[in-house]
Amino acid sequence: VTLRCHLPQPSAWVRLYQYDNPTYIEQKDKVQDMAEFSLAGIKQADAVRYQCQYQGLAPAGTSEKSDPMELVVTGEDHRYPPPSISLSPEEHVEMGTNVTICCWNIYGDAFFLHKDGHSAPIQRQKLSVGAMDTFTLFGVTPADSGTYRCSYRIAGCCLLFSPLGDNVTLEVIPRTAPPGRSEPPFRSPLLTHEWQCHCIPHPLRWGLCTTKPKTL
Prior knowledge:
Blueprint: E1 2-6, E2 11-18, E3 24-31, E4 34-38, E5 49-57, E6 60-62, E7 69-70, E8 75-76, E9 84-88, E10 92-94, E11 99-104, E12 108-115, E13 123-126, E14 132-137, E15 146-154, E16 160-161, E17 168-173, E18 198-200, E19 208-210
Parallel strand pairs: 8-16, 10-17
Antiparallel strand pairs: 1-4, 2-3, 2-5, 5-6, 5-7, 9-11, 11-14, 12-13, 12-15, 15-17, 18-19
Keywords: Disulfide bond, Glycoprotein, Immunoglobulin domain, Repeat, Signal
Protein name: Ig-like domain-containing protein
Organism: Gallus gallus
C-alpha cells in the first residue's frame, strides 16, 4: 500500500504518523510537492488512520498534522482457520426437498455460503448465538445441484474474511414417479338389455310379440 502526502510548498521533511501517536512511522527529506510512503505486508493492525506533517522551507515552520485518512484492510486473512460445513440430507436428494447447510467456526460473526461457479456468496447469515449458522435451500431443483463452501467474517473486522472451507456436494435427482395403475389383461363382458320384438304365428291373432334380453 502506498500513502501519498501532497504539500503546498517545498519542505525540509515530511513525516507519516498513525493517528494519535506522537511517534512518526517514517520521514522523507527534501520533498518538493509530494511524499510517498509504502506499507509492506499489510496486516489487520495496519487498518488505522494516518496523518502527514511537514516542515516548510520558505516560510520556515512546522505544519499542523493533516486530516486523518483511514486505511481499510480487506480480503482473506489466512491466520484464521477455514470454517467447517455439513449438508443434510446428504448429497443425493429428490426435487422439492428442503436442504440445510450448516457452517461453524468460533472466530466468525457472520457466515457466507458460496457455490462454485458464482463469484459472490449466494447467501449470508449474521451469527446470533453460538458458533454455528444454517442456510436453507427450499424446494431444491436440479439448478441447486453443485458444490458449496462456507467462509466467515472475522469478528471485530469489517472487511476481513476467512479462507473458504471444505466443500459439500449436492445432487438433486428427479422425484420418483408413483407406479401407474395397470390395465386388466382383458375386459369383462358388458351385459345390457335391448328389447326386440319377434312375431310368431297364433291361431287367433295375426301375431304375438315377445321380448328377450340381448347380450352385447
